[in-house]
């Protein structure tokens, strides 16, 4: 008797598995979620789900690939949209705040401790493409138009500036650890961008610092 042919994969079912797994992983973390739990939530048996994904890690990696691909498309679109540099940076940060996991630290721990090295490297590359590159493209544009200092002018490298901005986005408004009355996303995004672009000093403080710098240079 010949081998039984594999049944063709149903894309709607595959998408449902990814969507369901995404919600469970983001709510409970990688370790707490089982493939049986995901299969039951999808109305499938475990063997049927394994027809689509070899194991939990393969499914988790595909969930993150799907998320980062959607993010890359949205971030690149916002970076290329009309508007001033600061306005577009605010849009990008607002998008990140609106779509980041409620518990980003949990997801970072899962990636670091639960996944194989090759999958961690893939996710790092996807993260770079969906977050770092769109942001750095705006910093490069700002340097080319004279709005942001170049490295020769004691400014930040565009990639370093992007890393700095991302590190300032610590948690999703309204997520775990947030205050009872979170700042609106647009306001928080604006404040975050302005701290990086203009610093924490007031107008008077910036004038005083400028005088001090000029004095140091002349001295």
TrEMBL record:
<dbReference type="Pfam" id="PF00440">
    <property type="entry name" value="TetR_N"/>
</dbReference>
<dbReference type="InterPro" id="IPR001647">
    <property type="entry name" value="HTH_TetR"/>
</dbReference>
<protein>
    <submittedName>
        <fullName>TetR family transcriptional regulator</fullName>
    </submittedName>
</protein>
<keyword id="KW-0238">DNA-binding</keyword>
<dbReference type="InterPro" id="IPR050109">
    <property type="entry name" value="HTH-type_TetR-like_transc_reg"/>
</dbReference>
<feature type="domain" description="HTH tetR-type">
    <location>
        <begin position="11"/>
        <end position="71"/>
    </location>
</feature>
<feature type="DNA-binding region" description="H-T-H motif">
    <location>
        <begin position="34"/>
        <end position="53"/>
    </location>
</feature>
<dbReference type="InterPro" id="IPR023772">
    <property type="entry name" value="DNA-bd_HTH_TetR-type_CS"/>
</dbReference>
<dbReference type="InterPro" id="IPR009057">
    <property type="entry name" value="Homeodomain-like_sf"/>
</dbReference>
